[in-house]
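Supplementary Methods S3. Complex input for the NAP-bound model.
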Amino acid sequence: MGGVAIPTLSLSGCETPMPVIGMGTMSYPPVDIETAKAAILEAMRAGYRHFDTAFAYGSEKPLGEAIAEALRIGLIQSRDELFITTKLWSSFADPAQIVPACRMSLQNLQLEYVDMYLIHQPVRLTEMISRTPVAAEIIRALDVKGVWEGMEECKNLGLTKGIGVSNFSCKKMEEVLSIAKIPPAVNQVEMNPLWQQKQLREFCKARGVHVTAYSPLGANNTKWGDNRIVESDVLADIAKAKGKTTAQVALRWAYEQGVSIVTKSFNKQRMRENLQIFDWALSTDDLEKIDQLLQRKGVTLASILGPHDLVLELDAEV
Ligand SMILES: NC(=O)c1ccc[n+]([C@@H]2O[C@H](COP(=O)([O-])OP(=O)(O)OC[C@H]3O[C@@H](n4cnc5c(N)ncnc54)[C@H](OP(=O)(O)O)[C@@H]3O)[C@@H](O)[C@H]2O)c1
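Predicted complex, serialized as structure tokens:
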């Protein structure tokens, strides 16, 4: 069975085209390697070619195994058909550790290069952590210049095709853009109808930085999200009139904003449902209704790292 053909977009400073929708791999509750690998292979059968992982998710190894298996069974002919994003964890956000951390992720993924390497969040942790929240003593401000130079080295060494950031505010974007020799290609941030990120998107657009939307379904059923998107009455009314689901309306809305999307489903039906967003459109009236939805940030650094002063300051940055 052939999968859905997903549109791609080209990013400045990244040689490989990015499929506009990618499969997230952060699961809640966490799943074992075999379950994640099977879900990723199923996603490839459905047509997904863009996968979003991170050292911190523990999903680099199952993704690597799934890619190796997909090549073995002929589901894909070449690794080049895939767009793989992974992220520098904050415990390695120290200039000397960036290239080694990238190499470690590549080893987990059994790959020679990734397509996109992102700074996971604008903070440094002085220790490796096994659970969150973390102690205030191990949180430090990010050495933006030193860390970005390390990211540039990863690209110059050919370990990644493109480099970018995640969870960066306009203020943090200014900092990195002011020192970058290679500007970030991507800023991956939370974005959905209930957290539309208008200001950040305008800022990034003006500077040629592409935005990728994570948690586009509000991270339904996870410990870092809630069901306010999939159970939104406004989205449900739009969905009903179009014969779609609320999830499809949320994903279509993000797609129409010109961003790329990473959304996670390890369920065979829902991962396919989430790809059925390319042959219909929202009306002006639908877009106006979505525009008026009350805004609330779902994912904060404080909810992950703890309500420490530096973390609260970062969350408050626009
Ligand atoms: N850079 C960062 O700091 C950061 C932060 C958060 C997330 N991310 C990335 O973005 C990816 C996506 O974000 P996310 O996982 O937080 O949230 P999400 O994609 O908004 O939501 C995922 C949740 O929604 C459920 N779901 C999926 N499709 C659905 C549908 N059609 N109807 C109803 N429920 C549905 C999934 O369950 P099932 O699997 O059971 O379908 C899962 O529990 C992550 O996996 C990760 O790769 C990055």
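Residues 61 and 108 are 5 Å apart (CA to CA). Residues 24-26, 52, 120, 166-167, 188, 214-222, 225, 230, 245, 247, 262-267, 270, 273-274, 299 surround NAP (CB under 6 Å).
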